[in-house]
Amino acid sequence: MDKNPKKIDLLIESFIDSIKYATSKTNLSIKLNQILERNFTYNIVGELGNYAGKKSLFSNDLFSRQKYYNGEPKILMKNQNMIILSFNYKNYNITQTLYLTNLKINYFSEVVRKNKITHKGGHGYSVMVEDTPIAGKPVIRPYYDCCRPVFSGGKADSGYYLDVGGNHLVAQPQYRAY
Question: Which residue segment(s) compose the domain that 171 sits in?
Answer without folding.
Answer: 118-178
